[in-house]
Design brief:
Largest sheet: 4 strands, antiparallel
Number of strands: 4
Number of domains: 1
Distance between the termini: 11 Å
Number of helices: 3
CATH architecture: 2-Layer Sandwich
CATH class: Alpha Beta
Radius of gyration: 14 Å
């Protein structure tokens, strides 16, 4: 069973979108690949949002497939905490972050 976390994020005011995307490619993707609980990690720029979805607006959506929610959260609380603090201090508005955990329904 695939366990996937979707995270909707908004850039902090004044953050250059190209600088954030460069950070994602050069730093965040590499850091995610070092986390043994992450199977797959990709960030997507949101280009359009249907009416009726509240809480935004958001700029990006992360898709994080993990081996276990428990293991992922354990790693985030220990090994990734400093990195996540940097991410929110420099690039992202923590007050706009929304997280959704899911389990894929197999055919």
């Amino acid at each position: 069973m695939a366990i996937v976390r979707y995270v909707l994020v908004k850039l902090r005011p004044g953050v250059d979108i190209d600088a954030f995307e460069r950070f994602e490619r050069e730093v965040d993707y590499i850091k995610a690949a070092q986390n043994p609980s992450i199977i797959s990690y990709r960030t997507h720029r949101i280009t359009d949002l249907d009416m009726g979805i509240e809480g935004g607006p958001w700029d990006f959506m992360e898709r994080i497939e993990v081996t276990s929610q428990v293991e992922y959260e354990k790693q985030a609380a220990t090994g990734s905490k400093e990195f996540l603090d940097l991410l929110y201090t420099k690039y992202l508005d923590r007050s706009k972050t929304v997280s959704i955990w899911s389990e894929r329904i197999e055919p």
